[in-house]
Amino acid sequence: MSEKDISALVDRYRQTQESGKNAYFDADEFGDLAEYYDSKDDLDIVRKIIDSGLNIHPGNLSLLVKKAKLEVYDGEYEQALKLLQSSLEYDFDLYLLRIECYLQLGEYKQALKLSEGLLEREDNEPMENVLSELGFLYAEADLHKEAILYFENSLHYNPENADVLADISYSYEVLNDYDSAIGVMNRLLDIEPYNYEAWVNLGKYYSLKNELEKAIDAFDFALTINESDNNVLKLKAHCMSLYGRVSEAIDIFRELLSDNTGDTSIYLSLAECYQALEMFDEALSHLEMYKDTESETNELLIKQAYILFQKEEYQKALSIIQKGLEEDPYSTELNMIGGEIELRREHYRDAEIYFLSIFPQNEENFQLLDKLAILYIKEEDYSQAAYYAEKMLSLDTENLAVKERLALIYFEIDDKEQFNNILNQFTDKELLELFKLIYTPQSSSYFDRDMLISYLNKAREARTLFKNLKY
User: Fold this and answer.
1) Start-end of H helices in 294-347
2) What does the alpha-carbon distance between residue 121 and residue 469 come to, in Å, rounded to a whole number?
3) Distance between CA 448 and CA 432 in Å, rounded?
4) How far apart are CA 129 and CA 127, in angstroms?
5) pTM above the 0.85 mark?
6) Per-residue pLDDT tens for 74-105?
7) Following DSSP, what letter does each residue of 405-445 receive, concatenated?
8) How far apart are CA 64 and CA 54, in angstroms?
9) Distance from C-alpha of 85 to C-alpha of 295, rounded to nearest angstrom
């Protein structure tokens, strides 16, 4: 419908509403009116128009689909299905809506059955469109592996479909398959070398892989296309700070701050940069600037406490930690910093209180387990130390430092069974390194595995040198 025609139709509709009369419109006109007001984001009028249309034209497929789309928009998937099942006609949008409803309701078998049926139809949309639409629906339902299959099959029909390439890269990102996401973005950039979003996404994927130099290069390409995007400048500066180019990052953040004083997150970024340079007073100063413009959050208190910990201003750090714990007693970060401070001050009971308060929620936190194991070694409570070290080993079975720690703990408490059990988990090379912690052999080539184990057990029985070993 031309702009003139739709304008005349809208005027006629408005006149009927103002007069309070129920003027007649055919089904297509109701549909055109609904689309017009939908484009204006006036969904209340859209709903009213569709309901009026269905009162006059009950069962009209186009209006039913539009009403079902509104139900889907509102998350009323079961209600949408009831509407759609009242029609036996074939319609591509109707099929897609049914599939979407079943996916969102978790009825995956029904969704798959309809998806396969849609792919088998001959009176259909072009196959690349069918596959890409299905991929989008499955991605929306967080079924990204299935979505990727549909997207990839769609690309067989049109390898240069930029929209599909963008969608499939997102699914790979959600699955943390950044290599595949990077490969897809490079395919897209081969087709559209000046695709701004593709360069930004490529930089993001490289940064997630910690390939920071490549991320910086990608963001630079994006900025040559649109140099005024401050968000990309921030991403670039953040990567530069992590890559060791901290001074350059500070220059960018300062420039951004001068251009946009309302972006208070830049204060936090500058604080991190100064912290990396061990310019702790400047870091704390920028955290104060952030607090002055925003509010005192627990995130801010964590940052302040950690910097004060690095400055070895322990009493100030503990004061901030206590303040934060009043709001969030089980904050992992605050309790970890507090425990670390007390561990350094050799206040072992206080450290234990901090660490154990968060252990029930963090039983697989490797750093916390490490601190607890060290704490109990310091207190010479080797049974407890072994308990936490065993938990560490279950999380990282190849960790040599943990295996050595456990071996030396069992060595100290003269637990022959556990000592030999942990020795069995050492490679020959690792076993020799453990041996060297206790003995100073003239020639390591003289010992085979059995001899090493024999000598280690003799040392365990003697237990003469262990007290001087440091963990």
Assistant:
1) 298-310, 314-327, 332-344
2) 75
3) 9
4) 5
5) no
6) 888 888 888 777 666 677 888 898 899 999 99
7) HHHHHHHHTT-HHHHHHHHTTS-HHHHHHHHHHH---S-GG
8) 8
9) 53
